[in-house]
Amino acid sequence: MSPADGIDPADEEALVEAGCELAEMGLLEAAVDCFRMAAELGSAIGAYNLGIALGDLGRWPEALDAFEQADAAGDEDAALQIAFVLRELDRRDEALATAERAAASGDATAAAVVACWRWCTSWDPALEGDLRAGAELFSSARADLAQLLIRSGRVEEGRAVLERGMLLGEVESMLPLGNLYADVVGDPVAAEAAYRAGAGLGDAHAHHNLAVLLDDRGDIEGALEHYRLAAAGGDSLAERALRELEEELSDDE
What we know:
The chain is mainly alpha-helical and 253 residues long. The chain is 77% helix and 0% strand. It has a domain at 1-75: Tetratricopeptide repeat domain (Serine Threonine Protein Phosphatase 5, Tetratricopeptide repeat), CATH 1.25.40.10. It has 15 helices and no strands.
């Protein structure tokens, strides 16, 4: 029996609860139906959750409509979600302006997001304070703070920031920490551990860098496995490296 069976279609709270249960079960299309019914009744949380579910399905224009409805209904978190969806739609100027408005209204997480997006386009060291303030609120802010510290010569502090991110399970910190271990610290064992942690959370670039490390070590089977996983995750450079390695192995036969 589905959690939606027997739900009163006029009961906003029950529809949202059923939608959440369905989403947890991976039944996103059914969850969308419940959330949409709640949203049509005027539920702000129903519209917000509808946006989340539609985003999980990659239906970004519909997600944008849902979050805008939630925002209009007074959901305080919807504005930042609108900004994220605008980024997915490659409407980056609008996304930044929306995040800035959310930050100006007192949303501290939105302020952290703004700092990250500004850092990525400017590498402005004056953003250090904003990135520090946002590091515990938005995992990318921690990774960007570490990058700023490393770029300004404070390598040990940057390393400590990334290690905290890895300890907290933040995938954004794992690839740069692996790169730091491999390229600066000279610790391939620690680099491998960081890459494997990131790869385990689905980071295609971590798969790629792990493959390079294993290839250099002579673990060809391991390298092939992780090049393939990186390529499957959309890493075009890994796809090319995989092809070159396979051709090299074929020539050696």
